[in-house]
Design goal:
Strand content: 5-15%
Radius of gyration: 26 Å
Helix content: 40-55%
Distance between the termini: 46 Å
Number of strands: 12
Low-confidence stretches: 1-35, 54-63, 457-501, 547-551
Number of helices: 19
Mean pLDDT: 76
Length: about 550
């Protein structure tokens, strides 16, 4: 445990943010250029050499790791800011940096944190160090708790709100789980999400709910992307800042593409597609008609889905915000122009406000019906925002981690720890999403040591109904049925004549078995294995597990 237990002191003299340009030094190290330092460099090496170094910066893209003295001041000997002998820590060795910060006074921690935050051009190591520091400061925070349901979860556990429950590995430490994205795909993720929760979710109130404006929505997006990096798709091993760019196309070109479901070759639920199409959110791209012609005589899940989707799209008169290409099973692409983004966003937010108001003012509804309809409205607006994909990146962070919990709190519900937030991508119906919201509330109550409040004993996944005998069996079953085709039907022989497409189900189950085993599940003796086999038995496909071993 850290020797200091006081809350870090908020500094009134935060470092002035600087726009740093990177230049290599004669010693092979790298440094940053600011306006004052350019003048200093000109005095030392002359104008011509200065310009050569600045041009070299643009070409070489060398990244500096920040260095600090014992008082938390940034050290850069090249610019006369201290000497090499003053350096006691730098971010190039993250393990050593973490050991160092754990020994520092709160005011030193605050100074180092503000310096890392103020940099406009950070390395991967800087961004991770910032999240490490934020985590330490959170553990020392003795400030006031939020006056809403978020207060039931200790602040050091808030990471569970923005790391999907399916990724929580019980064999790993909380630190490893919380920094999972930081260490892999998005350095700075933890810090940005904690700031987002502090600024936009913790103040939420069910007593005084506020209408969200398009400006605040965009401010929330900026909060979850600022100072955060992502892996470059163009250059392996390189990290780049997450863009804070609006989605949509320019002059009909350059829209953003994304998947409706997490598994690339799974099909969206046809009911979900229908409701989104009727609202003008999605449509089928009419130019990709070759698969539709081939679908006329075909009978695979994909071709049947295309026939249904084509009929639905032909019956809608509005131009959809996004289109599903027939060549791909679940990829959507935005079709609106960038200039339309704010107007479409405002319409979505206003429609949600009106729907919530109408539910509350309907005196014919029982209390239970009011609560259920509010959950449907919340699930609907989050799905619409996510499918509209108003930004080129970080839509999930904004919609499913921050805004979803804010709306739930404002309407009197607890926050949620979702199993997998990717299901808001448009592949699932509102009913299915509401079922997952209730599961998420129970997950939150489990994590905060409170009694479960939601009855989720009966759930519907892609038209497949199953009544659970035990909660633990259902926990396994929801994963088995999480990504199946929209053509899954009731498989209870006495209830429905239509039969499930057996090979598709088996293929999905095999994927789930592989996924479980990657997380150390389903080995002989594991209690999950027993529950899993019980669920497979209910689906009449219990032999699938035997394909992988001979128990």
């Amino acid at each position: 445990m850290h020797e200091h237990t006081k809350r870090p002191v908020e500094s009134n003299h935060a470092p002035t943010p600087v726009n740093r340009s990177r230049v290599p030094t004669s010693s092979g190290h790298s440094s940053f250029i600011t306006g004052d330092n350019i003048q200093r460099l000109q005095q030392r090496v002359g104008n011509q050499a200065t310009m050569q170094l600045m041009r070299s910066t643009q070409n070489n893209n060398i990244i500096q790791r920040m260095k600090f003295d014992r008082n938390g001041n940034e050290v850069d000997p090249f610019w006369g800011a201290g000497e090499e002998s003053d350096i006691v820590a730098d971010t190039s060795d993250l393990n050593a940096f973490e050991i160092w910060i754990k020994k520092q006074r709160p005011e030193v921690l605050q100074k180092v944190y503000e310096t890392l935050k103020s940099s406009s051009n950070v390395s991967r190591e800087d961004a991770i160090a910032k999240s490490q520091l934020k985590m330490l400061m959170v553990s020392l925070d003795e400030g006031e708790k939020p006056e809403n349901g978020l207060a039931h979860l200790p602040k050091e556990d808030w990471w569970k709100l923005f790391i999907d429950r399916d990724l929580h590995n019980a064999n790993d430490s909380d630190k490893t789980n919380a920094l999972r994205f930081d260490m892999d795909s998005s350095p700075g993720f933890y810090d940005a999400m904690m700031i987002g929760l502090e600024n936009f979710v913790a103040p939420a109130s069910s007593e005084y709910p506020t209408s969200l404006t398009s400006k605040e929505y965009m401010d929330m997006h900026q909060a979850v992307t600022k100072g955060t990096l992502i892996k470059s798709h163009e250059q392996e091993g390189k990290y780049i800042p997450i863009p804070n760019d609006k989605s949509g196309s320019t002059s009909g070109r350059g829209g953003t593409s994304f998947g409706m479901t997490k598994v690339e070759d799974s099909l969206p639920n046809i009911k979900a597609f229908k409701s989104l199409a009727e609202d003008g959110i999605v449509g089928l791209n009419p130019h990709h008609n070759r698969p539709l012609r081939e679908a006329e005589d075909g009978d695979s899940s994909h071709t049947r889905f295309l026939r249904e989707a084509s009929k639905i799209s032909s019956q809608t008169s509005t131009t959809p915000r996004t289109e599903l290409t027939a060549f791909d099973k679940n990829t959507l692409s935005t079709k609106y122009d960038k200039s339309q983004m704010e107007d479409l966003l405002t319409k979505t937010l206003n429609r949600y406000d009106e729907e919530i108001k109408g539910i509350k003012e309907n005196d014919k509804l029982e209390q239970g019906e009011v609560e259920e309809q509010k959950l449907y409205a919340i699930a609907g607006v989050i799905r619409e925002l996510h499918v509209s994909h108003f930004f080129t990146d970080a839509n999930g962070r904004l919609n499913t981690f921050l805004l979803l919990n804010r709306f739930l709190i404002e309407e009197g519900f607890s926050p949620v720890i979702m199993d997998d937030t990717s299901m808001f991508g448009g592949g699932f119906s509102i009913g299915q999403l509401v079922g997952q919201l209730k599961r998420g509330m129970n997950n939150f109550n489990d994590a905060s040591g409170r009694e479960r409040t939601q009855n989720v004993q009966r759930r519907n996944y892609n038209n497949f109904e199953y009544r659970e005998e035990e909660q633990s069996s259902g926990d396994v079953l929801h994963v088995i049925l999480f990504y199946p085709s929209s053509y899954l039907r009731k498989d209870l022989k006495e209830e429905a004549p239509e039969k499930i497409e057996e090979e598709h189900l088996k293929g999905g189950i095999r994927e789930m078995i592989t996924r479980f085993r990657e997380h150390g599940k389903l080995e002989k003796g594991d209690p999950w294995r027993f529950e899993f086999k019980k669920s497979l038995h209910a689906l009449h496909v219990e032999n699938e597990l035997l394909l992988y071993d001979n128990d």
